[in-house]
Automatic annotation (TrEMBL):
<feature type="transmembrane region" description="Helical">
    <location>
        <begin position="31"/>
        <end position="52"/>
    </location>
</feature>
<dbReference type="Pfam" id="PF11299">
    <property type="entry name" value="DUF3100"/>
</dbReference>
<feature type="transmembrane region" description="Helical">
    <location>
        <begin position="101"/>
        <end position="119"/>
    </location>
</feature>
<feature type="transmembrane region" description="Helical">
    <location>
        <begin position="155"/>
        <end position="178"/>
    </location>
</feature>
<keyword id="KW-0812">Transmembrane</keyword>
<feature type="transmembrane region" description="Helical">
    <location>
        <begin position="216"/>
        <end position="240"/>
    </location>
</feature>
<feature type="transmembrane region" description="Helical">
    <location>
        <begin position="184"/>
        <end position="209"/>
    </location>
</feature>
<keyword id="KW-1133">Transmembrane helix</keyword>
<keyword id="KW-0472">Membrane</keyword>
<protein>
    <submittedName>
        <fullName>DUF3100 domain-containing protein</fullName>
    </submittedName>
</protein>
<feature type="transmembrane region" description="Helical">
    <location>
        <begin position="64"/>
        <end position="81"/>
    </location>
</feature>
<dbReference type="InterPro" id="IPR021450">
    <property type="entry name" value="DUF3100"/>
</dbReference>
Length: 265
């Protein structure tokens, strides 16, 4: 909290990003929505030691400690939208809870692809989930972030932060335009545990269905909160053990030998 340089830079980046505002582009029948959050992220990347060197490694570590607090403020804002639509959310609660089984789809698709691309133990961290903050904490606790599993989860986390908002916004528009899925179901599906990705997806849906604006935001926020609550346990009890098992099977299929075990396990 004593790093005033970070606070000043954040204030400047936010002011510039908000001045640019939301940008919308038509993509077929859908809409791609670029949010100020994305502009701030890109500008922040160029301030890093690898580019303009405005910030140092210490500044980046100090900023990283505040990510969770910042996201808590965002989720508190979304929480205020849930109250007026609470009856609809309660009716959809089974769907909101069961959607966490979608984590298993990430494993079944991601592990074979990662191994075939040549990844080793990095596959465990990269493919067990979409690798947001709770998943980083889980991998750190079990394997450690200095190991291969930690490198995998951090790699996916960074990629998700950089391109995830654009990808989710585009994906939501595509499914809303080309599939019979209801906008409410798409809003629920956007709550995967990432506030930025959920915001981008709901923003795209809101641009296409402005009359459903408040309800879409409420469904997305409620889904995201539930993902944060039970998603971690879903990963711990189901997706992570499945990832380990599938990794060993896929590794043996490709290389013909047993997979190595983690030094941290």
């Amino acid at each position: 909290m004593k790093n005033w340089k970070n606070h000043l830079l954040v204030l400047i980046l936010v002011a510039i990003a908000e001045a640019i505002g939301v940008m919308k582009f038509k993509f077929g029948p859908g809409t791609i929505v670029l949010l100020p959050m994305l502009y701030a992220l890109i500008m922040g990347i160029f301030l890093s030691p690898k580019f303009l060197k405005v910030v140092k490694e210490k500044d980046m570590k100090d900023a990283g400690a505040l990510i969770t607090i910042s996201l808590m403020l965002l989720m508190a804002r979304y929480g205020t939208m849930i109250g007026p639509t609470l009856p609809k959310i309660i009716k959809s609660s089974p769907a909101l809870i069961l959607q966490e089984l979608g984590n298993l789809g990430t494993v079944l698709l991601g592990v074979p692809v990662a191994v075939m691309l040549g990844l080793k133990r990095e596959t465990i961290g990269a493919a067990h989930s979409i690798a947001r903050e709770p998943n980083i904490a889980l991998i750190s606790d079990i394997y450690g972030l200095d190991g291969e599993e930690g490198q995998g989860v951090m790699g996916v986390y960074i990629c998700g932060t950089v391109v995830g908002t654009v990808f989710f916004g585009l994906l939501a528009s595509f499914f809303a335009a080309y599939t019979p899925l209801h906008p409410y179901s798409l809003a629920m599906a956007s709550g995967v545990g990432s506030a930025s990705m959920m915001t981008a997806a709901v923003g795209s849906l809101t641009a296409m269905f402005p009359d459903m604006k408040d309800t879409l935001a409420a469904f997305g926020a409620a889904s995201n909160m539930l993902s944060g609550l039970d998603g971690l346990y879903m990963c711990l009890w189901l997706s992570l053990p499945l990832t380990e098992w599938l990794y060993k099977k896929t590794y043996k299929f490709k290389y013909g030998v047993e997979a190595t075990t983690s030094k941290e396990a």
